[in-house]
UniProtKB/TrEMBL annotation:
It holds the Pfam family Arm. Gene3D superfamilies: Leucine-rich Repeat Variant. This is ARM repeat superfamily protein. SMART domains: ARM. It comes from Centaurea solstitialis (yellow star-thistle). InterPro entries: ARM-like, ARM-type_fold, Armadillo. PROSITE patterns: ARM_REPEAT. ARM repeats lie at residues 141-183, 229-258. The keyword Iron does not apply. The keyword Repeat applies. Keywords: Repeat.
């Protein structure tokens, strides 16, 4: 009986030990698993959701930086282009000054030689379409030598000087006034009233008519031109010349002069000027200008009534 009890106790004790060992392993495993999970949770970070507003601000900053760089580049390019344009203008202006001074030097060489003639031709070209050239050339003193060239015995020199003076007066009242004050009107009339070779050269006459047209556009010149004897010359040219351009220039010059009442009397005293104008009324290209001249003539006190029957 005692032996049986001992055996039973031994069995129970051995079973309890095995049970405890099994529980111990489970507890250790649980602790290990818990520790592993804890360590994983501590080391692994959850993903942070994106903030869309922050992303928009960053994109705007990047865009602004890009625009700023582009703007700076564009500004530098524009600045460089501006500097190049200024430099180009300065070089161009310097070149023009050289040409203008060269023309003046050739004109001031004097005489009937080729230098003065070349200078007159150069002034004619430079002043044709350049208002600045007209102003600068006049300031450099080209008008007096050009007027002096009208006394030349060389026909080409006279004609070149006339057209150079004509171009200098285009759109420049100061030059128009300076040309008349230099005595050019009387010199021009001397060329057609006392021609060197018989009748006045038609090219020379055309150049003089063109000058009278341009110079008479200035009010202060109307009296000087009208009292110089230019009116009979213009009427004579109007009647005898067959060149349409010269005819139109003569009519326009006479109209400019007829604006001043003191110039109307010399017109009606020059032969059959008014009846001749009436015969030209059929020319559609001249009718308006003729009517304007007749209107000025008729409206002039102490002159108009003499024409009315």
């Amino acid at each position: 009986m005692a032996k049986l009890q001992q055996t039973s106790t031994t069995v129970v004790g051995d079973g309890s030990f095995k049970l405890w060992s099994s529980c111990r392993r489970k507890i250790i495993d649980a602790v290990r698993c818990s520790g592993g999970i804890s360590r994983y949770r501590k080391t692994v970070k959850s993903p942070v959701p994106k903030n869309h507003k922050v992303e928009e601000v960053r994109a705007s900053i990047d865009e602004c930086r890009s625009d700023t760089v582009k703007s700076d580049c564009d500004g530098k390019v524009s600045e460089k282009l501006s500097e190049l344009m200024k430099t180009s203008k300065l070089l161009s202006s310097a070149e023009e000054d050289v040409r203008w001074k060269a023309a003046v030097k050739r004109l001031q060489s004097g005489g009937d030689g080729g230098e003065a003639l070349g200078g007159a031709k150069l002034v004619r070209v430079l002043a044709k379409d350049d208002s600045e050239a007209r102003e600068k050339l006049a300031l450099f003193g080209v008008i007096p030598p050009l007027v002096a060239m009208l006394d030349s015995d060389d026909l080409d020199s006279r004609i070149s000087a006339l057209y150079a003076l004509l171009n200098l007066g285009i759109g420049n009242d100061l030059n128009k006034s300076a040309i008349v004050e230099s005595g050019a009107v009387h010199k021009m009339l001397d060329l057609v009233e006392s021609p060197i070779e018989g009748l006045p050269n038609p090219d020379l006459s055309a150049a003089i008519v063109a000058n009278f047209l341009g110079l008479s556009a200035l009010d202060s010149n109307k009296s000087v031109i009208g009292s110089s004897g230019a009116i009979p010359f213009l009427i004579k040219t109007l009647k005898s010349n067959k060149n349409p351009q010269v005819i139109q220039d003569s009519l326009r010059a006479l109209y400019n002069l007829s604006i001043l009442p003191s110039n109307v009397l010399p017109m009606i005293e020059t032969g059959d000027f008014v009846p001749f104008l009436l015969t030209m009324m059929g020319d559609t290209g001249s009718s308006d200008r003729i009517l304007s001249i007749l209107s000025n003539v008729v409206s002039t006190p102490r002159v108009g009534p003499r024409l009315v029957p």
